[in-house]
């Protein structure tokens, strides 16, 4: 999977910048959005990202609501999305491991309920919002 252009949707500037910096060190091209509105504006400009990193807790809507909206829009509905919570103590490790696996073409699933890993998951493009547990 082509996986060089990343859109980070994260309301906290410090977290957004830290994630972006780490990705740029790994030679990813990174764009940023602080909320649903700026994310949709960024996506509608064209030059779509290969992957979206989506924080669950946005300012005006939840990450799940944004995801439902994204999946309903032609052209951006098929962009793989990694959903994460910046409250996870293992965010850095888990996010970068998952991104590497996604870029390598692996399917990433939600961790088991008894797992202590972060609530990070990849949503396959064929998954419908109503199927998310």
In short:
With 133 residues, the chain is an alpha/beta fold. The chain is built from 4 helices and 5 strands, in the order βαβαβαβαβ.
CA gyration radius, whole angstroms: 14 Å
Return residue spans where pLDDT drops below 50 for at least 5 consecutive residues: 111-133
Order of helices and strands: EHEHEHEHE
Q: Biggest sheet: strands side by side, in what order? A: 2-1-3-4-5
Description:
This protein is an alpha/beta fold. The chain has one domain: Response regulator (Rossmann fold, 3-Layer(aba) Sandwich), CATH 3.40.50.2300. The chain is 34% helix and 17% strand. It has a 5-stranded mixed sheet. The longest helix is centred in the first third of the chain and has 13 residues. It is globular. The C terminus is likely disordered.
Task: Give the helix/strand layout.
Layout: E1 5-9, H1 13-25, E2 29-33, H2 36-44, E3 51-55, H3 63-72, E4 81-84, H4 91-103, E5 121-123
What are its keywords?
single chain; 133 residues; alpha/beta; Rossmann fold; 5-stranded mixed sheet; 4 helices; 5 strands; 34% helix; globular; disordered C terminus
